[in-house]
Specification:
By secondary structure, the chain is α/β, with parallel strands linked by helices. The chain is built from twelve helices and 15 strands. A seven-stranded mixed β-sheet has the order 2-8-7-6-5-3-4, with helices on both faces. It has a four-stranded antiparallel β-sheet with strand order 9-10-15-12.
């Protein structure tokens, strides 16, 4: 029996998206910048997908959707597209629990002289809007706060945060890669200026994503070229995978009213089944949470026998795919920076594990995963204790 519970890492490409991509590859393979009929057929495919992705987040115009290679590029375009307009370093605000696709470019900007404020989070991983209000400066040009945290599942108060930034005249970006297609998103009511999404998190193909850019917001491109994607992302668009992304977005919008409550029920079932498992501590906000996301840390984890990666390997041997939160660098395991930012000590932060549910997850899967994880932890604990003694 094989059970995949790593939907936050990537989702399987839906049959509908695959069929659409095959049709485009064989019939609509033209360059959408070309003026002849082959090019114009491809352009129609491109603009149809742009509308489909825009409708998923209620974008005011399809032209506000810029296709990219994925969430990482969308985040980088949002951040660097703003900061490159300034001849001297200014001030940025991000949360302390951003994905590395935001945290790393901001770290680079810090080395270039930019001021950076990292908003603290509480023990559940949530930002206090009052901290954003207090952190704004006269030279703040951009705020970026993740919508749904990929490691611990916490959903941030994005509308409230965006309104604070809007009142101060500061641009607001959110990385919504984990939230789009799982939670209803309306960029107009949220008042966000920039929002990143990714195809392969919503059963579309890997290698394509999008950045929503509110009409009137100016960005500078990351690279020069032919000026495709409203001048913000040069290069011939990969029509087939963009078409697959469009279909995936359309299906996500249609299925969300039924699928999101189903995932919440399965998520809460897994939390309940593991509630009495020794040494296992739920992480993140259990209420303000991504609907598909279950995460824990191990109270007595260490860098050797008992840690998140050990659990992932043992679960894999049982035919179950999950993920870990701690990072491995030069052969040495480092605590999860997200859990450290939430106030956890090093030991439990070494034991972060994540199980994320999706379209093909069933109740029977949840029950079996809970049994398997409990048994694996029971086996690992004596190993860890004997190593210490």
């Amino acid at each position: 029996m094989q059970i995949y519970l790593d939907y936050s890492a990537t989702t399987p490409t839906s049959p509908e998206a695959i069929a659409t991509m095959q049709a485009v590859l064989t019939q609509e393979w033209g360059n959408p910048s070309s003026l002849h009929m082959w090019g114009q057929r491809a352009a129609t495919v491109l603009e149809t997908a742009r509308m489909q992705v825009g409708e998923l987040i209620n974008a005011p115009t399809s032209e506000s959707i810029v296709f990219t290679s994925g969430g990482t590029e969308s985040n980088n375009l949002a951040i660097m597209g703003v900061v490159r307009q300034y001849s001297s370093p200014q001030h940025l605000i991000i949360s302390g629990v951003e994905h590395s696709a935001v945290a790393e470019p901001v770290k680079l900007l810090e080395q270039w002289g930019w001021q950076v404020t990292r908003l603290p989070v509480d023990s559940k991983g949530r930002v206090n809007p009052l901290d954003l209000q207090a952190g704004l400066q006269n030279n703040t040009v951009l705020v970026s706060v993740i919508y749904g945290q990929s490691e611990v599942g916490t959903v941030q108060p994005i509308e409230e945060l965006a309104n604070i930034a809007r009142r101060a005249g500061v641009l607001f970006h959110t990385d919504a890669v984990q939230a789009a297609g799982r939670l209803p998103i309306d960029v107009q009511s949220l008042n966000v200026d920039l929002l990143s999404i990714s195809s392969h998190k919503i059963y579309g193909p890997q290698g394509v994503g999008a950045l929503y850019v509110r009409p009137g917001v100016e960005l500078l491109p990351l690279m020069g070229g032919g000026g495709q994607e409203m001048g913000l992302r040069s290069g011939t668009q990969p029509i087939s995978i963009i078409a697959g992304f469009g279909i995936a977005a359309e299906l996500a919008l249609q299925e969300m009213p039924a699928e999101t409550p189903r995932l919440i029920e399965l998520r809460d079932r897994l939390f309940a089944r593991l509630a009495d498992t020794p040494d296992l501590i739920p992480t993140g906000d259990l209420i303000q949470r991504l609907p598909h996301h279950v995460s824990f840390c191990l109270q007595n984890a260490n860098g050797e026998l008992l840690n998140g990666r050990t659990v992932v390997r043992q679960m894999n041997l049982a035919g179950i795919g999950i993920s870990a939160g701690a990072a491995c660098s030069s052969g040495k395991l480092s605590p999860s920076r997200v859990l450290l930012a939430m106030g956890y000590e090093d030991k439990p932060a070494l034991g972060a594990v994540r199980m994320t549910l999706g379209r093909y997850t069933q109740s029977a899967d949840i029950d079996w995963v809970a049994i398997a994880l409990s048994q694996i932890l029971e086996r690992l604990q004596p190993m860890e204790l004997s190593a210490v003694s």
